[in-house]
Inverse folding.
């Protein structure tokens, strides 16, 4: 039974989420304020966090940043603010996905399930996949660049692995959404853009001049030459 | 042709410039006054000069007569030969003794006595006898007085006015003679000419000075007015911060002051209006935001009820369905309202990325296919093969296409819909043409208005919000592109979206026609 932490200040919404999700068999923990979020996360060790952005005490972006320092736990941002900048800032702070109020329960469930699905890399003869100076261990999910260990969230790991497993093949944003996020319906391709940016900031020497994850103009992305 | 253009340009300048008009009027008036004054002066001075000269000549002529009389008083009883001796001295004598610088003499024998032809008629060199007319000689012969006449003579090749005097002289022995004296008025003529030139130049210079000072003074008067006019133009053009410098307390300063007051209150009013409009936009935006959280809860509640509907009695189940549908509709309305309020607040920054327009259109068609099938509408495409790369915000383009396609399917009356894509050097266009109910001209003008529906009695099958086309129009504008429409009643409508391939391309021409199907 997966554990979910819901951080939402609106009582009615939080309760309805709790009822709905509990009925789906999740174990639910809640936090009503920003200040309660981190202690609740540390105490309950949830498998996924639903995080409102506008919270009293501490806002969602700060919480996201703080959690990402110690954990790669999937985070889905819940936001009433459709202003793109807030959503993008949330993703940049390390959230895996977002959902805009008012959302549909089925879609929320789909997103939660996609993030909770255990990630199994197809076993190859070599468990180590290399992309430039970066080595990925598909068994231990460890990533190294030379001697330095790089910590990627599971989603970032999956994104890099998808790209690196077929070097020099171009992936459209839509196909990445399908393969990495496991969304078969129309989703926001900016998710891909932001995560590629985050990934680059972790693995590239020069983020402005990427060598490992390359943009193919008008098309999508590909992993750079080995 | 060149001249008439020049005249036209001058007339235009005359009409458009207050200053030029004032200048022309003043110069014309003073010019006329100067000409009249100069003419009068010239005539008076000329008359004075000539009448003085004429008086002098009469006195001189009288003196000359007594000189001749004195000369011949000693010749009483002399022979004609001896008389001729005396006659010969008359001309040189009179030429020398004249007070005037030059006078010519003619001493003409007019005697009818038997031996009179023996006497000579001497005259100064250069004196033509035809200068002395018959009429004048008759006048002299019949009078004891000195007669005078103004004539023209040739002097050193030029024509000069002169005074001719004539009088009778009786020589000893009863011979009748006529003494003619010609006084040229070369000096007087020159003086008059000099005076006239002086007057002319003086007048000309005065006119120039008057013109210049008029220009300077009018300039000084007109400039502030011109500044007010310029500032008013700028103010009318929207530059509400325009103010005029106020100097002194004269009428111009009053004008500048009242202009500044006007601009000030205008600016205040505009700021007030802008603030009100901002408040309103903020309000719409805030309301939309605030409604989102309760709407989410309602939606989740409805979803939950829906998932449990198997266990509900029939009426309650239907109620849950209705609730679900209305929450959906509320949701769409709210998102559209929020989108519009963002456009109103100019808070939209499209995310431009290089995309393949054919790909975007293809995906839009894919996602609408089910709806088209449900309406039995065939979607026909005319899309060029290959990629059409352009800088667009794919979500906005997709939203526009979805709107156009949904609209077309709704109004198509089951007839096929044509989707075309085309490109040229600078632009890419997508058109959606249906052959359905179409629109009349009045409807056509309102089609992009908010909450406008072509036919209010029409059944709302898709539950559109009435904001779709208004948002699509703004979306196209956000791309520096255009969303256009044409339609004919009962023949269908054609919507055409044209966007530049690269942001910053201007003067784009749509590669597709805007026309309903034949």
């Amino acid at each position: 039974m997966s554990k979910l932490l819901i951080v939402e200040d609106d009582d009615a919404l939080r309760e309805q989420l709790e009822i709905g999700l509990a009925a789906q068999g999740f174990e639910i923990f809640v936090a009503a304020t920003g200040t309660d979020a981190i202690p609740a996360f540390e105490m309950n060790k949830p498998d996924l966090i639903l995080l409102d952005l506008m919270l009293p005490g501490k806002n969602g972006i700060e919480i996201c940043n703080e959690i990402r320092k110690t954990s790669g736990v999937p985070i889905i941002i819940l936001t009433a603010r459709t202003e793109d900048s807030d959503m993008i800032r949330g993703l940049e702070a390390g959230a895996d996905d977002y959902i805009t109020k008012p959302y549909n329960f089925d879609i929320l469930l789909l997103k939660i399930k996609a993030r909770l699905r255990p990630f199994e890399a197809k076993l190859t003869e070599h468990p180590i996949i290399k992309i430039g100076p970066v080595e990925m261990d598909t068994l231990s999910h460890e990533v190294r660049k030379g001697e330095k260990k790089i910590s990627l969230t599971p989603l970032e790991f999956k994104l890099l692995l998808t790209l690196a497993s077929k070097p020099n093949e171009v992936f459209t944003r839509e196909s990445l959404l399908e393969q990495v996020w496991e969304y078969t319906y129309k989703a926001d391709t900016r998710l891909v853009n932001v995560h590629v940016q985050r990934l680059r900031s972790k693995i590239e020497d020069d983020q402005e001049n990427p060598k490992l994850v390359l943009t193919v103009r008008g098309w999508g992305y590909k992993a750079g030459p080995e | 042709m060149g001249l008439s253009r020049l005249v036209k340009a001058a007339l235009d300048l005359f009409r458009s410039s207050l200053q030029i008009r004032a200048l022309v009027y003043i110069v014309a008036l003073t010019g006329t006054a100067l000409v009249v004054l100069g003419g009068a002066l010239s005539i008076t001075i000329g008359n004075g000069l000539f009448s003085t000269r004429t008086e002098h000549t009469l006195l001189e002529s009288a003196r000359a007569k007594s000189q001749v009389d004195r000369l011949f008083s000693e010749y009483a009883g002399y022979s004609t030969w001896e008389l001729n001796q005396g006659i010969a001295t008359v001309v040189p004598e009179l030429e020398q003794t004249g007070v005037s610088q030059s006078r010519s003499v003619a001493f003409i024998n007019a005697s009818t006595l038997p031996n009179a032809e023996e006497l000579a008629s001497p005259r100064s060199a250069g004196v033509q006898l035809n200068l002395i007319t018959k009429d004048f000689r008759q006048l002299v012969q019949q009078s004891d007085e000195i007669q005078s006449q103004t004539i023209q003579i040739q002097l050193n090749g030029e024509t000069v006015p002169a005074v001719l005097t004539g009088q009778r002289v009786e020589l000893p022995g009863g011979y009748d003679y006529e003494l003619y004296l010609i006084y040229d008025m070369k000096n007087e003529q020159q003086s008059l000419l000099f005076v006239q030139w002086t007057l002319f130049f003086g007048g000309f210079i005065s006119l120039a000075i008057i013109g210049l000072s008029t220009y300077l003074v009018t300039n000084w008067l007109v400039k502030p007015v011109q500044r007010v006019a310029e500032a008013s133009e700028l103010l009318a053009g929207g530059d509400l911060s325009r103010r005029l410098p106020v100097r002194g307390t004269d009428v111009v300063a009053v004008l500048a002051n009242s202009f500044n007051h006007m601009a000030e209150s205008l600016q205040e009013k505009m700021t007030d209006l802008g603030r009100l409009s901002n408040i309103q936009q903020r309000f719409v935006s805030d309301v939309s935001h605030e409604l989102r959280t309760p709407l989410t809860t309602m939606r989740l509640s409805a979803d939950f009820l829906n998932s449990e509907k198997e266990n509900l009695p029939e009426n309650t189940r239907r109620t849950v369905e209705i609730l679900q549908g209305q929450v959906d509709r509320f949701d769409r309305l709210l998102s559209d309202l929020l989108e519009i309020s963002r456009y109103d607040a100019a808070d939209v920054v499209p995310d431009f990325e290089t995309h393949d327009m054919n790909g975007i259109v293809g995906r839009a068609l894919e996602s609408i296919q089910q709806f088209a099938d449900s309406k039995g509408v065939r979607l026909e495409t005319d899309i060029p093969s290959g990629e059409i790369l352009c800088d667009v915000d794919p979500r906005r383009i997709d939203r526009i296409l979805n709107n156009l396609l949904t609209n077309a399917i709704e109004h198509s009356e089951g007839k096929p819909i044509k989707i075309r894509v085309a490109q040229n050097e600078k632009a890419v266009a997508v058109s959606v043409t249906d052959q359905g109910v179409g629109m009349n001209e009045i409807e056509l003008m309102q089609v992009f208005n908010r909450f406008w529906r072509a036919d209010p009695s029409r059944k709302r099958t898709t539950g559109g919000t009435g904001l779709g086309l208004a948002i699509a129009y703004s979306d196209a504008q956000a791309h520096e592109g255009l969303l256009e429409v044409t339609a004919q009643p009962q023949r269908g409508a054609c919507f055409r979206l044209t966007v530049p391939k690269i942001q910053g391309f201007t003067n784009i021409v749509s590669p597709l026609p805007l026309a309903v199907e034949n």
Observations:
- The interface with chain B takes residues 10, 12-13, 16-17, 19-20, 23, 80-84, 101-106, 174, 186, 188-190, 217-219 of chain A (CB under 8 Å).
- DSSP finds eight helices and twelve strands in chain A.
